[in-house]
Write a structure and sequence with these properties.
The complex is a heterodimer of chains A (about 500) and B (about 350). Chain A is mainly α and about 500 residues long. Chain A has helices at about 5-30, 40, 50-75, 80-95, 100-105, 110-125, 130-140, 145-160, 165-185, 190-200, 210-220, 235-260, 265-280, 290-305, 310-315, 320-335, 340-350, 350-370, 375-380, 390-410, 410-430, 435-445, 455-470, 475-500. Helix content of chain A is about 75%, strand content about 0%. Chain B has 2 domains: about 25-195, Mannitol-specific EII, Chain A (3-Layer(aba) Sandwich), CATH 3.40.930; about 210-340, CBS-domain (Roll), CATH 3.10.580. In chain B, strands 1, 2, 3, 4, 5 and 6 form a 6-stranded mixed β-sheet that branches. In chain B, α1 packs across α6 (about 150-165) and α4 packs across α5 (about 85-95). Classes of the chains: A mainly alpha (about 500), B alpha/beta (about 350).
Amino acid sequence: MSTPSNPKRLVRLQFAGMFLVAALMGWLASLLPAPADAAAVYPDLAAAASPERLLSVRQIAAVSVFTLIICATLMFEERRLGVAFVGIATLLALKVLTLSEFVHSTELHIILLLVGMMTLVGALKDMGFFTWIIQSIINAKRMTGLKFLAILMLLSGVMPGIVDEVTSIVFVLALVFQVCDTLKLRPTPFVLMSVMATNVGSTGTMLGNPVGILIGTKAEYHWNPGSGDPGVPLSFGDFIVHATPIMFLSLLAIFLVLLVYYRKDIRLLDERLAERRASHVGLGPMVEIPYRRGLAILLGALAFIASHHPIEHALGLEPNTMLVAAPLAIAGLLMVFRSHRARHYVESSVEWWSLLFFMMLFAVSFALEHCGVTDVIAGMIAPEGGAAPNKFLLTPLIVAITAVGSAFVDNVVFVSTFIPIIKKIVAGAPEMSPLWWALLFGACFGGNITAIGSTANLVAISMLGKKYSIKVAFLEWLKVGLVVGAVSCAVATGVILCYYKS
Amino acid sequence: MKGNSSPQGPFPAQRAAALPRRPPCGANRNKESESMPPNPTAGPDPALVFSEHEVLCRTPLAESGELLDRMVRLLAERDPAIDPQAALRAVLDREAEAPVFLAPGVAMPHARLEGLERTLAAVATSEGGVRFPGAEGPARLVVLVLAPVHEPAGYLRVAAGVARRLQDPAFLDEVVRRDTPAAVRDFFLRGAAELPEFVCAADIMERPSAVLRETDSVKDAIDLIVRTGRTEIPVVDKEGALVGEASADEVLGLCIPDYLLWMEDLSVFSNFEPFATLLRKEASTWMADILSDDYASVKVDQPAIAVAEALARKDAGVCYVLDGDKLAGVVTLPHFLNKVFRD
């Protein structure tokens, strides 16, 4: 069959394919058994002439809408929010969700946390903090190729944990472009190195990736599995203790892989830097940037956020209350004191498009859980009444499934769907709590496998295209992405297995 | 040689002569068109542009005003749509705006007229020469062209055809030597095959007024930008091949990179601090730092419309005209607009 040359015809074909896949998944959903607590979830089932059929319709609707959103994410980035809006409207009309359930399930606290952080980042950019970091690096004395790459990878790895991954990649790529422009180097290898380190680094703290915030706030982690204590959400400190070391180990591993993979480009970088050093010419202007205020605000904000757990404990607040309140308070203060820029921060620095999509996605994931679909999947992965879940089997399985899934679909989609499944497994076997980490690392490291695996990848590709008219071929990315994804997932799986308490 | 302002040949015919000999633009199309019905929008047929009646052979008139008046009246006799007084005024106005000399001894005054349906020409030869106000020397060959206002290619094609005939150094002497209008017309028409069916890039290009070498420094580039007032300057290698473009934008970007623009307010650098680094190192900063390969270019024998396309697609202010990979000329946007709308 020849490829349709008419773009409108292609879109129509894509839509037809999308609805076909959604219909197929809907049919599969119709085969699902009804959950035991269906009547408690949907009181109207009792009055229905055929309760099983009504429930089945709701399961079909939830699965079909979820599939449509996944397909839209894959095929129509610019239409995915529209599809999600229509999907939610359908779920409301079919009573899969009530209005109050929808509002509750949009996870407004996570969205507000992200709004607060994005506002903070906008202000830091304004105040020259990021400019100062870039300038300090490009004007560093005795810069060599290896030294520059080590700094680049470390910066790409650490920054997403402090700001978010999208801000981090925009900022790091400005550095890459400056160096490549000045030294007349092919930017693609350095862009790929930065974005892969960014995806790995986004797991380092709870703030690095929306996935981290989602897992941290939704997790029910049993720190003492045998004690019968209830599961608790993860804190910023838990991430620092458990996720940060894995992030650094994985970062080191992929750094070594990339050094070998891009050795020719790195050798050229080294030669060009040596020529620059010899002629005593820097890589950019050297000016005094007033960075201290920005640095103080960032350090203050990080200290405030990092100490959310003890503050909550002291004030008798619910877990993670201050994790949301702290960024909001900092953003609010910045908007009060920099009132002339307040509108700019809210309107331009906050990624409303992504945040609205996340809200719809969270609601659809809730719908899947609500009508019992995720319970059934969890039962398939770890059957109730069967043998005790095997950590050596389940940990790599969860890492692999989420990694492969996140390689093709937004990792928030995957994680929000998998959270109820992990919750169900851990509720039955509290010693399997480290599966929460498996979910985090699988979802984030899998993003390195393909060019569409993460938001950071898409931003990087778009920036590369806009500035240099360079397109990164799917296979070009896949070749290096598969190696990097496999190595980082292997490192993470190995360390997570050490976190189990039998 | 450090970034030089290369002397610009004042005459289009000199520019054309500087190019290697090549088949005339649209030559193939001419051959094709022999078997095709005449296309009313195809532009001037060389045989129809002027007849014997519009040739003043060895004219005794020595002043351009008198001669042009006579030539306009000849054309008005051929086409009643021409108002002689208005046409002469338009020719003189155009002459006052831009030089009419195509080459030493060859003047080509012209005007675009409302109501005219096709391009018409009148030719005058003079043994003693005709004086044009402000011109250095007299004209021995005067070609007056009146073109329809809505047909930009009309005058340009005649000018391109005459310019190509002038590539033959003996042409002027030969044409002045002819002693009858018929002989003059026949001599012109002998080169009719070279009258282009379309105007090509080489016909509208100018010699680059400023060129940099790839071995020059950023200091040389800034000097040349400041001296010439040009914001884009071509950079060539020692063989004359175009290797890129140095631009004022790139110099500015070197001082104020994107990441500096992230800051809300650059007034903290009120003493031009970002420029100080480059100022200290400009002589030792390589041309490569400001060299861009994202420029508009066309080949010499491409139709002139390709210049417009390249300028528009690249959102550029200048298009480089290449002969092979060598820089043959440039077409700036104002020059292009002048050629299409005013010339």
